[in-house]
Amino acid sequence: MTWTTIIIAGILTYLTRMTMIALVSRDFLGSRIKTVLEYVPSAVFPAIIFPGIFMNDFGAFIEINDPKIFGALVAVIVGYFSKNIISTILAGLFSYWFLIFVIFS
Amino acid sequence: MLSKKKLFTKGMLDIFPHMLSVIPFGMICGAVGVELGFSPYLVYGMSILIFGGASQIVFLQLLSGGASNLVAIASVGIINSRHLLYGAVLSEYLEKLSFFKKLLISYFVVDQGFAESNKYFKRNKTEKFLHYHLLGTGCTLWFCWQIATLTGIILGSLVPEELGLKFAIPLTFIAIIVQDLKKLDHVVVMITCGLSSLLFFDAPFKLYIIIAPLIALFVAALILRFKK
Question: What is the number of structural domains in chain A?
Answer without folding.
Answer: 1
